[in-house]
Fold:
Amino acid sequence: VQLQASGGGLVQAGGSLRLSCAASGRTFSTMGSYVMGWFRQAPGNEREFVAAISWSGGSTDYADSMKGRCTISRDNAKNTVYLWMNSLKPEDTAVYYCAADIEAPGFPLDEQSRYAYWGQGTQVTVSS
Structure:
C-alpha cells in the first residue's frame, strides 16, 4: 500500500490548507473497506492524532485541538482522503502523515498503533 500525502505548505496564522492523501498499490486494491486517518508530528514532540474517518464516512473523529477547525472527508472513487484545516495557528506547524488500515468493528480511529500503512508526510508551517 502506498499513501501519498500532499497539500502542505507555508501559511499565515488564521489561514487555511487542504491536505490530500491518495492510496494506491496492489495490496491496497484487495483491502476492501479501510479507515484513514491523519496524524502530525512537530519537532521535539511525539506524533499525535489529528482526525480520522471510516470507510463510509459515517464515523469521524477529531483531536480536541482540531475540533471546529478541520474537516476530514474522503472520496472512495478516487481512493483519497482530505483534511481541510482553517483558522490555523503556529502550533499547528508539523509534518502531517496520513495512515490507513482495514476497517473492523470497533476500530479505534484515534490510535496510531492500529494503523499499518503510513504515508511519507507533508510539511505544514504556520507563521505568526
In short: The first strand starts at residue 2 and ends at 6. The mean pLDDT is 94. The longest helix spans residues 26-29.
